[in-house]
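[step 3/7] fold_predict: job queued, chain A
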Amino acid sequence: MDYKKLNAIIYAILAALFYAVNVPCSKWLLNDVPPTFMAAFLYLGAGAGVGLMYVFHFKKEPSDERLGKKDVPYTLAMVALDIAAPILLMAGVKLGTAANASLLGNFEIVATTLIAFGIFKEKISPGLWGAISLVTIASIILSFSGEGSFFLSIGSAFVIGATICWGLENNCTRKISGKSTYEIVTIKGIGSGTGSFILAVVLGENIPRLSYIAIIMMLGFVAYGLSIFTYIRAGLQRQVHIMR
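[step 4/7] structure written:
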């Protein structure tokens, strides 16, 4: 049995399961929480949670596994894209439906693969091209409102924008996936969360109540922190592209 392949599959399934709770829970919370602050505390929860895990792992980690100077461009791009993507997603969820946003989220697979093919020159199998075509067709259909005519849904457009940002971010993260998973997720969470928080303040959004902040950060730890952690581990085991 190929244990690396089995581990990659298990990590990939866990990543998808952890992320699955994000959209329905966020849809409910967005009734009382502004979208940019929502994105900020989701990532801050991810960074704080995995950062706490890192405290207990740090001494066991070889120094050559930590990020170095050559990893800085990919790390900065990763953080910047992770600021934009969840804000677009939260806006899309707020303007649309949770079910539609969840289904459109599958377009991230297409974006990730096409960017890997077009920019990073990776090969794509015929079977994967077929899957990409089906997901793309489904995403196009879901992007239009069903009110008797084809009007592009603004909420769907925001969600598609988020998946494209995450598709590029996935490829940046993959370039440094051989480094410390704990360090990568902690930097992603704290960096992206802080950037989104500053943007929310600039936009004049009202900061949510502490009770909501606690719930959002716990959701962020599971849906973003643990999901990204297992996503990177899956890619490290098998170098596969999976949805976050």
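[step 5/7] annotate
Residues 75 and 138 are 32 Å apart (CA to CA).
Residues 240-244 have pLDDT under 50 and may be disordered.
exit 0
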